[in-house]
Structure formats: C-alpha cells, structure tokens
Design goal:
It contains four helices and 29 strands. By secondary structure, it is mostly beta strands. Strands 1-8-6-4-2-9 form a six-stranded parallel beta sheet, with no helix packed on it. A four-stranded parallel beta sheet has the order 7-5-3-10, with no helix packed on it. The termini are far apart.
C-alpha cells in the first residue's frame, strides 16, 4: 500500500513539471527569420591557406588586440578604414575575443586579401571585392612582445615576408581604426626584433659550464669559436681559485671540494628559516662568503662563511623576488635581478643599497615573454663597477646580451 502511494506521488510530481505528462499541449518558441540583410556583405573566409603571392608588391597591414572596445558594452564590431590610394594592401586582422570586422577602403586602395584570425572565430563584412581567409595567427598588443614575434614569423612562413609595414595594436581595439600611413621602417616590425649594436665599451668575463669549468665570453659573444651550449644558468658559484663549488641542490647549499671530489651540505642553524625556492648563490672571494637568495615566504638572503664553514646571518627580503644574484669584485657589492625587471644593488654585508628599473630600457627584452600572461624572464647580471652585462640564457646557451651603464642608465643590445 505504501509503495503504491509513493508511485502516485512521483507521477503527480512529474506531471506538474512537464506539460506532456499533465495533458497540456506542448508549446515551442516563436520563429526567428534568417537575417540575410546583415549578412549580405559578409566576406566568406576560406579555410585553405592563403596563397603566398597575395603579399607580392603589397603593403602588409596588421590590426591586432585582445578584444574590441565595445565588448563590455555589448558590441563586438570594429570599423577598419584603409586609406592607401594607389597601393595594394594585404590586411591582417587578429584578436582573441570574437570581433565583427567591418572593412572599408578609400578609392584607389586595392585590398589583395583579408586574413582574419581569432581564438573565437571572427567575421568580416565588406563591400570590397577581395578574398578572405581564416588563418590561425596569434594576437599581439605591442611590437615588443613574444606574440608579435610569433605573429610576424607566421606571416613570414605563409607569405615569404620578413616584416610588416604597419601595425596597429592595443589590448582593447578602438571601435574605428584608420590606416592612412605606414610605420617608419624599424627592426621592431620584423620577426627577429632589435638588432645588436657594437658596444660603446668592451667587457670580458667568464661564465660557468655545467662541468664547473670557466668559459670566456665578451659582450659580443663567446671568446672561442662557438657557444658550447652547456652553460649553467644560476644556482652555482666557484670560489676565487675555482677549487670549491657552491651549488644549490634540493633547496640546500652543497659545497664540493674539486680536488677530493667530496662534498658536504652546509646545514642551516636551528633559528634560520629553511630554504624554500632557493634561486641563486653568489661568491664574494674577498671575504670568502657565499650568499644565497630564496623566494619562499617573504624571501630571504643568507650569508655563509666558507672559511669557517658556518652560517653568518640571514635577513628578510620583504617580498622582493630575486631571480639572480652576482658579486661585483670591482664595486665590492652584489647585483641582483628581480621579478620587477630591476637591478637591485646590495652591499657586501647584505644591506639594500638602491635599485634601477632596467627592463624598459632593454631593446628587444619584451620579445622574450608575453607581458600580460608571464613573469619577467630571468637575466644573469655580470657586474663590473658601473658596467653590468645582462645575459639571457636558455637551454645552456646565451641568447641575448645587453650592456647597462649604472651611471648613465643607458642600455645597449650587443649580442
């Protein structure tokens, strides 16, 4: 009897929530007619790769960004006006968010093709007689970004070009973009980016290989015939004579005697915070002190007396993230590279001295990362008084070198 009552209640509940069960007729939504009027000027975008000859004799114009300005207000349209009379233009439109690109051209301007791309597929409307292609490309908001380099490289592979002629980039693309002139010729418009220049001053220095040997370098490249490709990028230092190795392994400082091939761990005192995210170690040969920096917590700087084999002290970095640390034997101080794209100068005793904002002065530095979605890349400082060489290493190979003058605050890309 109880089971029958439950079944009746379930059936009643289903009937109450479903018109078909309740006996009421089903009802569909009102029909919406196809809007051919707004789609009349929609340019078909071919999925096949665009022919390379479309760029032959053409000005390559790129308009790119993350989203349209009107997106937050509900609009996704961007009006593009190309005003290049007597010119042939290959128009490239890229974004992340969906955009309705509405393209017009002045009389005498020939649009050889429109290439559109987006993480969310775009649409293109135009009355221009031209060809349209849907082609996968990254978006870029500025020329000094990894995305822009990848964008130009992709266009280069597709159209056999080495640069673009005009770039209009921004995070939020304006509702109207007019292109009436080309950009001045610049390495910034190429896939490679900034071009190295001869340094105004020379500097020679040694880098450490993974086998602890010293490799001679200059501001313009390796002193030997080629880069060996086995350089150590941080977390390793040698004493003045190269007899002892100080290396960070497993968030601890290990000291290796190269003559005996024996090593020991420099155990931290009980009142010291444990290493967490140990980033780098630098050696002061004048005082025989190894200095370690970490990121864990608020970040710490530790000093170790290599002669007495005991720790001296530690101090908080107060949430300054130091990625790399080097000792300067000329100025008798440490120089650090931080997550803020700064050079931080620290006394031999571990006291903060001053900082210099540097990243914005390094030509081509922005090409190393996506500024909106990634941290500042690690640079290795090699300081010698007022001159600091800044090296970008990847996979054991030096990819770029800048020379920075502490006194004048000027920087040069030299390699």
């Amino acid at each position: 009897m109880a089971r029958a009552i439950v079944l009746i209640l379930v059936a009643a509940a289903i009937a109450a929530g479903n018109p078909a069960w309740s006996g009421e007729p089903a009802r569909f939504g009102d029909p919406i007619k196809a809007d051919y009027e707004s789609a009349r000027d929609m340019l078909p975008l071919a999925a096949s790769p665009p022919p390379p000859e479309l760029a032959a004799g053409a000005e390559v114009v790129v308009i790119s960004g993350y989203e349209p300005t009107g997106k937050r207000g509900g609009g996704t349209a961007v009006d593009v006006v190309v005003d290049r009379p007597k010119s042939k233009v290959l128009l490239v439109l890229t974004s992340y968010e969906k955009i309705e690109w509405r393209v017009t051209a002045s009389p005498g301007t020939v649009i050889s093709a429109i290439v559109a791309s987006g993480y969310h597929p775009p649409t293109v409307t135009t009355k221009i007689e031209t060809h349209g292609y849907l082609f996968k490309l990254p978006y870029a908001t500025e020329t000094e970004s990894a995305n822009f380099g990848a964008l130009v490289a992709s266009l280069g592979a597709a159209f056999a070009i080495d640069r673009v002629d005009a770039f209009r980039g921004s995070y939020r693309i304006p509702q109207t973009v007019t292109v009436s002139s080309l950009d001045p010729a610049s390495p910034r418009l190429t896939a490679r980016g900034a071009v190295p220049q001869a340094p105004s001053r020379k500097l020679s220095f040694d880098l450490l290989a993974r086998d602890y040997s010293r490799v001679p370098w200059t501001l313009t490249g390796p002193a030997s015939q080629s880069d060996r490709g086995d350089l150590q990028d941080g977390k390793l230092a040698l004493d003045g004579g190269g007899k002892r190795v100080f290396k960070l392994t497993g968030d601890q400082l290990e000291v290796l005697d190269r003559a005996t091939d024996r090593s020991y761990v420099a155990t931290l005192p009980a009142n010291f915070p444990r290493f967490s995210w140990a980033m780098d170690v630098a050696y002061d040969a004048r005082r025989e002190i190894a200095t370690v920096v970490t990121l864990g917590g608020e970040g710490f700087l530790y000093r170790y007396d290599a002669r007495r084999q005991q720790w001296i002290d530690f101090r908080s970095l107060n949430n300054v993230d130091i990625f790399a640390l080097s000792y300067d034997p000329v100025a008798d101080r440490y120089v650090a590279w931080t997550d803020r794209g700064e050079l931080m100068f620290i006394s031999a005793d571990g006291d903060y001295l001053f900082s210099k904002p540097v990243a914005s002065r390094l030509d081509g530095f922005g090409r190393l990362y996506d500024r909106g979605n990634a941290r500042v890349p690690r640079l290795t400082p090699v300081p010698r008084g007022d001159t600091v060489a800044l090296l970008y290493l990847q996979g054991g190979t030096v990819k770029r070198i800048w020379r920075y003058d502490v006194r004048t605050e000027k920087a040069e890309l030299t390699y």
